[in-house]
Amino acid sequence: METLRNKILKYGHAIDENILKVDSFLNHQVDPNLMYDIGTNFKNYFKDKNITKVFTIESSGIAPAVMTALQMNIPMVTLKKNTSKILNDDFYQTTIHSFTKEIDYTLTLSKKYITSKDNILIVDDFLANGEAASGACRLVEEIGAKVAGIGIVIEKSFQPGRKLLDDKGYDVYSLARISKLGKGLIEFIK
Ligand code: 5GP
């Protein structure tokens, strides 16, 4: 997605070889026009997949996910991050390791917002090691629902997440694929 790549080049900031900051349009301040175009791209790519709900992971995936859900005219559900397990039968939970924060957290989903008949599109802001996306897939599949695809705004293709999800057979669609990061350097897969 060219507009996204241009935004990343203009406003993104690689703090080292691993982490890209995009606070001015995605992770802190949000560019709603860009989010709308992201939603259009995901809708067009996944339009034949009979998706019933868009799931995302709290909190930076919410803006692109809600725009995607708006255009698909289906609900968006946020998987909430908790630091500990909720001992309550009303929720499904799974544990994830955070790439950026180097901690474990629990993804929580109310039983009210999924059934085994659902066909889920998972949308997230970044793909790095694939822990967040794999955890979301695990949660969906443990319930007996289907993962129809995974939409990623920014994929760091030099990290293991993309291969992990490809090897598991998921349909992964990333709007910007970064091949290399460094101080002041951002390169995309051509
Ligand atoms: P993963 O689980 O794939 O290792 O990491 C994905 C999650 O970590 C994303 O939901 C995102 O919040 C965060 N993340 C991973 N890499 C980056 C990065 O380079 N920049 C930012 N801002 N967040 C990242």
Strand content: 25-35%
Gyration radius, in Å: 16 Å
Question: For the record, what CATH class applies?
Answer: Alpha Beta
Number of spatially distinct domains: 1
CATH topology: Rossmann fold
Number of strands: 10
Structural class: alpha/beta
Widest sheet: strand order? 5-6-4-3-7-8-9-10
Please give the share of residues in helix. 25-40%
Any guess at the CATH architecture? 3-Layer(aba) Sandwich
Number of helices: 6
Order of helices and strands: HEEHHEHEEEEHEHEE
Give the uncertain stretches in residue-range form.
Answer: none
- Main sheet overview: 8 strands, mixed
Shape: globular
- Ligands and ions found: guanosine-5'-monophosphate
Taking the alpha carbons of the first and last residues, their distance comes to 11 Å
Instruction: Give the averaged pLDDT, no decimals.
Output: 95
Please describe what this structure looks like.
Its main location: cytoplasm. Residues 32-167 form the Phosphoribosyltransferase domain. Keywords: Cytoplasm, Glycosyltransferase, Purine salvage, Transferase. InterPro entries: PRTase-like, PRTase_dom, Pur/Pyrimidine_PRTase, Xanthine_PRibTrfase. 5-phospho-alpha-D-ribose 1-diphosphate binds at residues 128-132. This protein is an alpha/beta fold and 190 residues long. It has a single domain (39-178), classed as Rossmann fold, CATH 3.40.50. It has six helices and ten strands, in the order H-E-E-H-H-E-H-E-E-E-E-H-E-H-E-E. Strands 5-6-4-3-7-8-9-10 form an eight-stranded mixed β-sheet, sandwiched between helices. A two-stranded antiparallel ribbon has the order 1-2. A hairpin with a 6-residue loop joins strand 5 and strand 6. Helix 3 (32-46) packs across helix 4. The longest helix has 15 residues, at 32-46. The model has no long low-confidence stretch (mean pLDDT 95).
